[in-house]
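Dear Dr. H.,

I hope your travels went smoothly. While you were away I took the liberty of generating a structure for the chain from your last submission, since the lab meeting agenda had it listed for discussion. I wanted you to have the full record in hand beforehand rather than looking at slides cold. The sequence, exactly as received, is reproduced here:
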Amino acid sequence: MTYTPGSAWSRANKAKPFRNADDGRDTAENMREAHLLATRRMAAAVDKVPAARNGRYHVAALLDNSEITDFDHRAPAELFLEDICANFARGTLIATEQGPVAVEDLMPGDRVKTRDGNGAAIRWIGSCMLDGNALVAEDYPLRIKADALGELRPVQDLIVGPRFRILTSHPGCAALFDSAEALAPVADLFDGDTIVRLRPPEDFEFFNLMCDGHQIIEANGLDTETYHPGDYGVTVMSLEVQSHLRRLFPHLDGDLHRFGRTIRPVLKGFEAEALRYG
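The corresponding predicted structure, in token form, is as follows:
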């Protein structure tokens, strides 16, 4: 039921006040008191409602003035901002110009190896915790076992978030997407054997990285990507999510267009299925 404050007031103001024989007060005054009492009861009921579960996201970013900012950001869990930060589990080895480095040991400004060979500086690192008790099975992280996608792909087991994408050079990419390579969601390769879902323990930490442009990098020897919302990702986000994005990515200075274009076509689930069975 929707309660509209003031509706009783407007009706009372149109009526001619009269005295109550018992207490000598106007009917409007009685209604005034009833309205205040109802308001107090509603406030008390709201106070008893449990607070919505919030997600905590840790951010470290290299700003345009070469300073590094480091902070925590909180947002309602139902906004699914975990999709932004939850990509590589703690312990994942990222290929850098200095050799493999655990993702949790990286800092903004460190340079990662990229597929084009030029390397790129990390501008942003985000992290968050995933709690298996708060997830449905289809949103569990995935364990990609060593050699699951070919020899040394990956070189050792890799635990990733449910939205993790890998680079594929399937022959069908050129015909279907006019590109020799594309990024495909690894969840569509789930087979329950070499790629399995993993219910995370409480407070299982995940990370993600971003460079100045979308890049192909290596995680445990497997080609994957730095963070990008997708070519149309920002435009379909609610204004509330966009507001949180501006705070999560301070190095963009509020301009979400600075994400740029994706470096390879990003396949939707049905497109990845077409490659898999086509």
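Two observations you may find useful: DSSP finds six helices and 15 strands in the chain. Residues 43 and 49 are 10 Å apart (CA to CA).

With kind regards,
E. W.
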